[in-house]
Design a protein that fits this description.
The complex is a heterodimer of chains A (369) and B (328). Chain A has 369 residues and is mainly alpha-helical. Helix content of chain A is 72%, strand content 3%. Chain A contains 14 helices and two strands. In chain B, α1 packs parallel to α7 (162-180), α3 runs antiparallel to α4 (99-125) and α8 crosses α10 (204-230). Classes of the chains: A mainly alpha (369), B mainly alpha (328).
């Protein structure tokens, strides 16, 4: 920030924009993404000495090079999207639910538990329904507890939900130790590996068909819920101003708890999809930081679930690509987190240029110096 | 006192020191009204920079001087962490990005950078694939000669490296700074009500920048202490620093934003975390449940604070809120 003296106009002046045309806003975001890709390219070049074009070829190859890789990209993007969709209502209400990580895990743990215990007792379709319901309930519970304290005693939800993550992580560690298979491996292994009880069946001949279908249903449903339902409108009002909401006769407590129940439930479903539809196992890495990344997805999309599809794909595309490059050059996978970080920093910065205009001091003023 | 109890207390103090640094940095940051959720990332940055700096020094010098090891790694850790804080400050203060989202991004980024280069260092170190900076680690773990041999007292109070004592000194200094000096009061005014502070002629932007960068530097020392002393100059990509970082954020609440409370609070967290050591007959799965204790205690404190609503125990009033002079 520049220091203004009394008689001189500062070098840079920041003016809030009254409004910005949508194409222009998207152009700014696009520039930010492109810039971040350039920086990522430089970063990868510095390490691998690949020329930047080759870098992005390798990334594309890593994400969509083979049929299998494409499906992995789609699968992971759907997971991120699902969590983002779950977080959208909470964040739209300005309820800082950073406990998605825990809500996913707890959903995943009950799914794994049921899969393990009742795998042979129920037919798979019934098992899937039971697991889904259980994960919804648990995710819901994990979301509602902080919400109740927030609405009744105004307990800080950011820190509460954060702590709930670790409670869930320790419960998961406990269960992993409990269900260890084989003993001493400190992992659960693929549950029902031989029988595939409780695993997602193929849909349209695709292993991850059901994942895609479920998540897309949630995405469309959430879009309609937030945009066209009365409850969605209430969420928007509470998010903009609690006082206005109260004045308009909205029961803020009820809306807070209800919204967090929905948010937690969808994150619980994400845990269910991850365990039953993707990994068929449970570990403390089942959520893998995606509960945090999804916050950024939801925030950047401004809670528009269709924009979230794009952002999820962008992030997962780059992550898969980075993993590919890492394998090729004998580096480790953490490169993908660095790249994710760089891109997010750029997109976050771009919001400033959408909301504000920077005005340079006019030339005459500069001459007078 | 049995050996077991002594070991428990020693582990608690070492564990506590890591999160005490993280929490003290975050207290300073939060006092300026910035809720920096990037603490884990910043601790990662501090840890890896200190490690990398001393690694390259030891790698290129067959006979490393302990003092140089110490100074280089300390400065590198503090500097890198402060740079992380600068990035956060630039985004949230100058570019007015959302604080929580920026902090979380910093955590992802810092973790990525640290584990990426940590892995690379492990590869470079060759051999068993594990980096080790023996000389630097020894410098960090050196105890005061004579005092550590004083039986029980020596074991309990003098068996640690200098950073354990530095943390306590820092907490006392910070307490004095925040409650007794003019600049400290100014800083708190910025965190409580930036508009009023601005009207009173306090430079809000500068205060926020300084507090956030210095705070990040201090948090970064937690990462340094962890790599150099706690795991003895090695690198593990197991995500421990991240969970410790979040625990540091929890400790800030537990200490109710007072550095002095952070001292005993951090040791208590350490005790809660390690208490399973002295409980006989625990299976490994039960240990995991015990490790939940610090988080449950924090939740309880959080609820109690919000129930009692004592003004002096509340977070800084404008915590997490952006301040733009032009906004009403």
């Amino acid at each position: 920030m520049t220091q203004a003296t009394q008689h001189k106009e500062p070098l840079l002046r920041i003016v809030k924009r009254d409004g910005i045309a949508r194409p222009k806003a998207y152009a700014i975001r696009l520039i930010a993404v492109l810039l971040s890709l350039v920086v990522c390219g430089i970063f990868i070049y510095a390490i691998t000495k690949l020329n930047p074009v080759q870098v992005y070829e390798a990334i594309f190859d890593g994400a969509f090079g083979t049929n299998r890789r494409s499906w992995v990209t789609i699968r992971d993007a759907m997971m991120l999207l699902c969590i983002g969709v779950g977080l959208a209502p909470a964040f739209k209400m300005k309820f800082w639910n950073i406990g998605a990580e825990g809500q996913i895990l707890i959903g995943g743990v009950v799914t794994a538990g049921i899969m393990k215990a009742y795998g042979s007792a129920l037919p798979t379709p019934a098992l899937l329904v039971v697991m889904a319901l259980a994960s919804i309930l648990c995710g819901c519970l994990w979301g509602v507890i902080p919400a109740v304290f927030k609405s009744v005693w105004n307990t800080n939800e950011t820190l509460f939900t954060l702590m709930m993550n670790y409670v869930a992580i320790q419960i998961t560690s406990y269960c992993v130790a409990l269900w260890e298979n084989p003993v001493g491996s400190n992992s659960v292994g693929i549950i029902n590996q031989m029988t595939a009880y409780g695993h997602f069946p193929k849909l349209f001949g695709q292993t991850y068909g059901l994942n895609v279908l479920l998540v897309l249903l949630l995405t469309v449903g959430m879009y309609i819920y937030l945009k066209y339902s009365k409850q969605g409108y209430e969420i928007a009002v509470v998010g903009d101003s609690e006082n206005t909401a109260r004045y308009a006769g909205i029961n803020v407590k009820k809306v807070t708890i209800r919204t967090m129940a929905i948010s937690g439930a969808i994150c619980g479903i994400a845990g269910f999809i991850e365990v039953a539809g993707v990994s068929h196992t449970i570990s403390t890495n089942t959520a893998g930081g995606r509960g945090f990344t999804a916050i950024i997805v939801a925030w950047l999309a401004q809670f528009n679930t269709f924009v979230m599809i794009l952002i999820s794909f962008l992030l997962v595309f780059l992550q898969q690509g980075a993993i590919q490059i890492a394998t090729q050059f004998n580096l480790n996978d953490y490169a993908s987190e660095i790249i994710t970080g760089i891109i997010l920093f750029f997109i976050l910065s771009s919001e400033f240029f959408i909301n504000y205009r920077v005005i340079l001091r006019n030339r005459k003023g500069a001459d007078g110096k | 006192m049995s050996d077991q109890i002594i070991r428990l207390l020693q582990s608690s103090i070492c564990f506590g020191t890591v999160i005490m640094y993280g929490a003290m940095g975050e207290i300073l940051t939060e006092k300026s009204g910035n809720l920096n959720l990037g603490v884990p990332g910043i601790m990662y940055l501090g840890g890896i920079s200190g490690l990398a700096a001393s690694f390259f020094y030891e790698f290129n010098n067959p006979d490393p001087s302990r003092l140089v090891c110490l100074v280089i790694s300390f400065l590198a850790a503090f500097g890198a962490a402060a740079l992380g804080g600068l990035l956060y400050s630039f985004l949230t203060i100058t570019l007015r990005a959302n604080q929580n989202v920026t902090g979380l991004t910093l955590t992802i980024f810092g973790g990525g950078v640290a584990n990426f280069f940590g892995g690379a260092l492990n590869t470079m170190a060759g051999g068993v694939g594990q980096i080790s900076v023996a000389a630097t680690s020894a410098a960090y773990r050196a105890t005061i000669p004579g005092l550590s041999g004083l039986g029980l007292v020596g074991k309990l109070f003098f068996s640690y490296g200098f950073m354990v004592y530095l943390a306590i000194v820092l907490a006392v200094v910070m307490h004095w700074y925040l409650s007794r000096t003019r600049t400290g009061l100014n800083l708190r005014a910025v965190g409580e009500n930036p508009a009023t502070a601005d009207a009173a002629g306090i430079n809000v932007t500068r205060n926020k920048y300084l507090a956030t960068c210095l705070g990040a530097g201090i948090s970064g020392l937690g990462g340094l202490y962890y790599t150099m002393d706690y795991i003895k100059g090695t690198w593990g990509s197991d995500g421990t620093i991240e969970s410790l970082g979040w625990l540091a954020v929890a400790l800030v609440i537990f200490a109710m934003w007072r550095p002095i409370n952070a001292i005993w609070g951090s040791y208590l967290f350490g005790l809660l975390f390690w208490v399973y050591l002295v409980i006989p007959g625990l299976a490994r799965k039960d240990i995991e449940l015990f490790k939940m204790l610090p988080y449950l205690v924090t939740i309880a404190v959080l609820i109690v604070i919000s129930l009692r609503k004592k003004r002096e125990n509340q977070p800084p009033a404008s915590l997490g809120l952006p301040y733009f002079r032009e906004d009403r």
